[in-house]
Amino acid sequence: MKIIHSFWSKPTLHKQKQEFSNNRKFGGWLEYKYFLMSNCLSLLTLKRENSNVDLYTDDHGYDILINQLGLPYGDVSLILNELENEDHRLWILGKIKVIELQEKPFIHVDNDVFTWAPFPKSNLNDHLIVQSKHPVPDIYKTALMEVQQKLKSIPSHLKKNVNEYLFNANVGIVGGNDIEFFQNWCKMAKKFLKENMNQIINLENIGYFNQIIEEFSISCMLSERKNVTYLIDCSKDINDLDSVLRFHFIPFIDKYIHLVGIAKHNKIACNQLELRLKYEFPEYHKKVMDIMDSMDYEDSSSTYERMKSDRIFKALPKVYHYKYEEIKTIKIKLYDNFSIHEEGDEENFFLIEIDPFSGKEIQKILLEGTDQLMYYFTESLSINELIEIIRGDFQNINEIEFKQLEENILSMVFEEILMIGSLEIL
Fold first, then answer.
1. Phi/psi class of residue 26: alpha, beta or left (left: φ > 0; alpha: ψ in -120 to 50)?
2. pLDDT digits (tens, 9 = 90+) for 353-367
3. Do 180 and 218 meet the contact criterion of CB atoms below 8 Å apart?
4. Can you give the pTM of this predicted structure?
5. I need a surface site. Which of 185, 248, 254, 414 has the fewest CB within 10 A?
6. In whole angstroms, how far apart are CA 160 and each of 128, 155, 308?
C-alpha cells in the first residue's frame, strides 16, 4: 500500500489574516516551530511501519521539508506548483489534486497525524480505510445550511435536511484499494467548485466549506459502502473522538494522534508534540531548533515551565518501555510543589501549584469527580493499589462500571504525569 503526504504551502505560508475557521497559517499551529515538528513526527512515525512515504508538494514545501529538514521521503513530486494562482483559503484543492493522481491503492495521511501502529491491510478490491467515524459537529451543520442557502449547483448528497445526516468521517487518514471511489469524489468536488466559485469565495464559513467538500462529502459516499475500516468508531459517543488527542495514552493504549483544529493552539498539546519528537527522534528535534535559532527564535517559556517539560520528558522512557499491566504497578507521587488542600464544610479538595522559583501560587483547582482521587498521591502509591482502595469503597459496583472507573483513573493519572506535570513516576 502506497503511503502519501501532501503539502500545498500557499495556505500555510500566506500573510493575510483570516478568521479562525480557516486559520491555515503555520498549518494552524500555535507557532511555526510546531508546524515543522508536526511534519517531522508525522513522517518519522509513519516510516517505522512503512519503508516508503511519498510526498506531493510545491517549491516552497520542498525547500522546507527536504532542503531544510532533510526528511527521508521516498518519491517527491512538485505537482502542487500548479496551484500557485489558486485562492489559498480553499486549502482542499491540494488534497483533491493529489488524490486525483492516484492510480494504485494508497493511504493519504495528513501531516498532523502521528502513528504508533501499522494500518490494517486487505486484499479486497472495495476495501477503504478511514481514521474515525463520529456524530456530525454542529459547526458542520451550520456550514452545510449556508451552502444550501447560497450556492446554486449542489450535489444531491448535500441537499438533505442537516439533521438527516447520521455521521461524519474524519479523514486525517484515508485511502484504500478502491481507486474509483476516490476518483468519483475528486470529479464531484472539482465540478462543485467550478460551478460555484464566484459564490464560494464569499461564503461566511469558507474554512468549514473545505470540510464540507472533504469530510462531509466523503462521509456521505461512505454511508453507501460496506467494506470500510474505521480505525476509531465514535459514531455513538462523540467523546470517543478524544482518543485521537490523548497523548497521555500513547503508546501503551492509543495508537493514533490527530491534532485537529483548535488542538493545535493548545499549549499542552504542542508541548507534547515537541517532547515526543525530542524523545523519539532527537536529531530532527535539533534540526527544527537550529532552524528556529537561525530565525532568532526566543523561547518565551518561564524557568518553571521548562522544568516541568524536563520532568515530563524524564517520564517518557517508562511510558514507552513498560506494558499496560506493568505501568499500573509503578509508584507515583505528587511533586513537592503541588499540594492538596481541603476547604469548607462540604469537604472540597483543591490542587494547588506553586512556582518553586518565585514561590508564587500559579493555580488553585477544585478537584471534582475522578480528579478527587489525586488526594491519594500525596503519598507514594501505584495505580493498582489505588484501584484496590476504590474497589473496597464500591463493593456493589458491577464489573463493567468498575472497568470504566479504572480507565478513568488511568486517564487522570497519566494526564497529570505527561501533560500537566503534577505527578512523578518514582
1. left
2. 999 999 999 999 999
3. no
4. 0.92
5. 254
6. 25, 10, 50
